[in-house]
Amino acid sequence: MVALLTIAALYFLLPVYWLVVASTKSSAGLFGSFGLWFSDSQWLHNLSQVFSYDDGVFWNWTWNSFLYAGIGGALATLLACAAGYALAVYRFRGREAVFKVVLAGVLLPSTALALPLYLLFSEVGLNNTYWAVLIPSMVSPFGVYLCRIYAEAAVPMEMLEAARVDGAGELRIFNTLVLRTMTPALVTVFLFQFVGIWNNYFLPLVMLSDDHKYPLTLGLTTWQSQADRHPELYQLTVGGAFLSILPLAAAMLVLQRFWRSGLTQGSVKG
Amino acid sequence: MNSSPPSRRSVLRWGAGAAGVSALSALTGCGQTVGAARTTRQESTRPGQKVNLVFWTWVPMQKTVDLWNKTHPDIHVEMQTIPASTGGGYQKMFSALTAGNPPDLAQVEYQELPAFMLVNGLTDLSSYGADELRDKYVPWQWNQGVFGGRVHTIPQASGPMGLFYRQDLLAKWGIETPATWAEFEKAARVVKARGNGARLSAFNPNSPAWFAAMCWQRGARWVHTEGDTWIVGMNDDRSREVAEYWQRLVRDDLVFVEPDLSSGWYRQLQTGQVVTWIGPQWGDALLRGNAPGTKGKWRVAPLPQWKAGQNASANWGGASTAVLQGSRHPREALQFAHWINSDPKAVDLNIAVGYGWPAATGVFEGSALDKPDPFFGGQRYNDVFTASDRAIDTSWKWSPTTDADFAHLGDAFGAAMAGEGTFASALADAQKRAVDDLLAKGLKARSQS
């Protein structure tokens, strides 16, 4: 079992390891030396180049990625939590129909929606604005699904009734009790959504044309596509790609603690 | 959406070239393509009013644009960097045309122009006086943007081809620079015998643009029009001859089979395993940047010929500055498009960022390209490309479905490498699919008989 897991871990870590090694090389070294070992170490030079190239546009992209993924992820989580909780707790006509429509949304690839969304946003003049990426990012059908399942298992009806008897309004119950009880699910939804937005390419590609509004994915692609003429951009693209995975790694490490406790809670309850 | 789209019939009646081919009525069926939602219209400006233009490109020409903005205070150009060509750039442009909010100006490659014509995506620049600029550009490049006798784009740069070769290694093995393809094949056999694992060159089975260039040099026409019908000739005798030639080199293990511009290929350039590259002028930066250790050992020769004494060349890559359909300032946009591609200072700045081979005539002399280069052992290597540019057959045309054609060709060559058929049968296969694609667009099309 350990051997199997070790192999699996190596398999997944190998590309990351390659990226670390490759980010230290010059463009010539990138192609001319053994891929899995260091050759011409110029890590600091590469990184400073990444940060300073084209008046430091990399900072811009990083900030944008954080903006899209951070705000988009947080709002998507909040909305998903509210919707999932409502679907789990309130009885109303068409509840199952609504839930099934949301479920169908899970099956629709976001890529297929990007073009229609673009036409809509152009109609109202929101294309090439931050909103064009943020607004579609605030919706997570999968999050709604997960939150409903979790709320059904983790939010006790007795607790809600007790709160109502004590005179708490529905909004107050949601803000104080439900959000706290559902934290593990929320962390999961946020993490999924954050990673999804961070890695999203097609939506920003279609929506944005001003390269100062680009997220990292799109920005690094413009570098890569210029590398034909400017070979040093190969090393910058690799360096930038390395830097761009650091926040994801950090988010995983920080948030996994909540995640784990959440899973066990769910198992006890469910 | 300020105006209704013009009727499909009027829009799509365009010809395939300036070389006397009359306007086509080829595109009058009920196609599935969506047209541009807004048509170009010149908006009047008050005296002293500043005009703003948006320019989409992936070539890093910001400094050139800055110079324009400094010297032309009335017309401000905002350059927006988008992903390159089929990597997302064209998709953006087509979406923007459909939505009716395209940029005024955009980078469009020659092979993509017919696809833009099909959706009425380009402004007819003849209406704004573009015909006067004709003499300022290399004829074949100018003609790439002429449809139905009307100018639809301003050419920017191209990639005339030549033979990059390692002079030191060829000399070591006693090989003369190959002047014909027969000599090239002989040289390949010598390198295989004496080269200690090296090969004369690499063949990329998935580089349709390169292979098209090879057929272009041979005198093939992959597409032309007769009346209202597209005739696809990817599988003509000449293209088949090219396919069979490379098939033989691959079969006899005389070339590496691998993508060029890839990491393995760069390594082989560095180590001298790959000795020549049949490449475009803009490839100089690739060799310099990715194989710096081979400095001084490279030279450039004209493309090998199919018959000794001939002088036929080919082109790989090339782009233009188009005024997209829907601009409100076509006159100013045309002024900018002409300036950025022909003003000597602008061209110098463009050359510095490696935009390719200038499409404007008379700007090469005295430019940064016009001098000996230590990487090529002090050779004035661009003289080779000047001659190459002049020897390119001007009648080559691209199809409105070039992207799909390239995909089919890549697939079919891949299958041939995997043992299903030959390169020649791949051409036949791709040709059939190309005809189907044109028919699916509602156009009249058939295979060349």
Could you characterize the architecture of this molecule?
Chain B: InterPro entries: Bact_solute-bd_prot1 (IPR050490), SBP (IPR006059), TAT_signal (IPR006311). Chain B: It comes from Streptomyces spongiae. Chain B: Keywords: Cell membrane, Lipoprotein, Membrane, Palmitate, Signal. Chain B: It holds the Pfam family SBP_bac_1. Chain B: This is Extracellular solute-binding protein. The complex is a heterodimer of chains A (270) and B (449). Chain A has 270 residues and is mostly helical. Chain A has a domain at 63-236: MetI-like fold (Orthogonal Bundle). Helices cover 80% and strands 0% of the residues of chain A. Chain A contains 13 helices and no strands. Chain A has helices at 2-22, 27-32, 43-89, 95-107, 110-123, 130-137, 141-154, 157-165, 170-181, 183-199, 202-207, 216-226, 232-269. In chain A, α3 runs parallel beside α13, α4 (95-107) crosses α7 (141-154) and α10 (183-199) runs antiparallel to α13 (232-269). Chain A is globular. Chain A starts with a helix and ends with a helix. Residues 266-270 of chain A have low confidence and may be disordered. In chain B, α2 packs antiparallel against α13 and α12 packs across α13. The longest helix of chain B has 18 residues, at 423-440. Mean pLDDT of chain B is 89; it is low at 1-33. Chain B has helices spanning 8-11, 62-71, 89-99, 113-118, 139-144, 167-172, 181-194, 208-218, 237-251, 263-271, 284-290, 330-342, 344-352, 382-390, 402-417, 423-440; strands at residues 51-57, 75-81, 105-109, 146-147, 150-151, 154-166, 201-203, 223-226, 229-232, 255-257, 276-280, 298-301, 315-323, 357-358, 444-447. By secondary structure, chain B is an alpha/beta fold. Among the domains of chain B are: 44-158 and 315-374, D-Maltodextrin-Binding Protein, domain 2, CATH 3.40.190; 208-236 and 399-449, no CATH class. Chain B starts with 7 loop residues before the first helix and ends with a strand. Chain A binds chain B through residues 27-28, 30-32, 35, 54, 115, 118-119, 122-123, 127, 205-206, 209-211, 218, 221-222, 225-226, 228-232, 234, and chain B through 54, 56, 58-60, 62, 80-85, 87-88, 91-92, 95-96, 98-101, 103, 261, 263-264, 266-267, 270-271, 282, 285-286, 288-293, 353-355.
